[in-house]
UniProtKB/TrEMBL annotation:
Record-given protein name: Protein odr-4 homolog
Pfam family, one: ODR4-like
GO cellular component: endomembrane system; membrane
Keywords, alphabetical: Membrane, Transmembrane, Transmembrane helix
Source species: Ibidorhyncha struthersii
InterPro entries to which the protein is assigned, alphabetical: ODR-4-like (IPR029454)
Gene expressing this chain: Odr4
Keyword presence, Transit peptide: no
Family to which this protein belongs: Belongs to the ODR-4 family.
Keyword check for Membrane: yes
Higher taxonomy: Eukaryota, Metazoa, Chordata, Craniata, Vertebrata
Amino acid sequence: MGRTYFVDEAIGQYLSDISTKLKPYVTGLLIGQCCPQRDYVIRAVRTPPKEEQKEDNISPSKLASVDEEWITTHASQVSRMLPGGLLVLGVFMIATPELSKDSQNALRRLVFSVEKSLTKRRLWKPAEEEVSDRAALQICSATKKVVCRTYDVRDPKSSAKPADWKYQSALSASWLALDCTVNVNIHIPLLATSPNHDLEKNTKNGLNRWSKQIEDSVFLINGQVKDDDTELLEGQKKLRGNTQSSTQLSDVKVLTQLSQGSSRRSTATVQVCSGSINLKGAVKCRAYIHNNKPKVKEAIQALKRDIINTLSDRCEILFEDLIINEGPHKKNFEREYHVLPQRLFVPVAGSNVMLSDYKFRDEADGEIQERFAEMLDQSVQAEDIHIAEEINTVFTSSLDFHAVDICPVTDNMDDTQQKQVTKATLLLKLQQNIGVVIAAAVAVFASIFSFNYFSD
């Protein structure tokens, strides 16, 4: 038995509208949520035309001209704009009857290309039990006939399986939201033996280690630790009734474990470092989950991935911005201080789900509006752009290990935070004088004893 896709009714109208404007074919992405029992599609987004197509007002005429690289790039950009719980579920193609015969082969290639591109960027791995089917939706522009099939993206030799495509009104109007703010303080040492301090690569390696901490963290939902297999709303229904407003939002606290546990042992190693990367601040995270008896583990998994994605995406955006504005050599700058882009949210019409984006301080609202129009084919009013964060997350790098910056995240630091910064600075200066002695001592003890490594 194939999968069932529950689809927001507005998508049917959207697909019908673009089928009359763009010929002989148009491609795009399906956005929604994967669940064990069923999938939900809440947005469809056409592939934006290339600049030369805009200027010449032309459309490609043959399926052989489908630009996989352009479509996968679009998918990567769109995936950054999706909060936790949402992902690119597949691709669609609307084609004339003459091209319909070859559409499915083109769709199959696109499904696997898009998934491969998105997987490369992720710092988390899907669980074995997760759904790995992705949709390939084919629509005839003349007859409006809809054919939905799925492919298992974990199996390159996967054959097409039929799937049901069912429209439903107000599909995500009462989905549940989980919000949290995560304090970030990541220190990534740069080894002196590294011949080239590629900060982008080293940052990703450091974020990989940090992401494992997030995966192992404890999550308190509305102040409680809940069993993974319980229903997310179990306690709320009894205490607060079943009104929509009382079950919309859950406040989540993230408790990062300090230790790897007594059952795991590691050996100390001493590595000479010539610099470091520091990420410090607070990031706003959000995940959405369907309202069909969602499990706690589904909600927490969605939020974990949003925490990991949002910091990774910001760093990617920073490096891309530096390369565009200052050239590729900026990947190896010696001493820099940057503020990562802030997160913002924009509502989706007819839904309580909000899409996401990132904004540098010098970016105008008009640039955000243009990006939403191009990437998500959505018109956005300036008053609908909600900046999520008031505290900047800063990125600091230094190739002089003795001059590592301790960067305040805001000008409004309280006395306690200021004392912590001062203390950290003094400790670094102290290390400057006794670092060699400590390193020698640790090396001697490490050869005799093994001990547990405690992470920040």
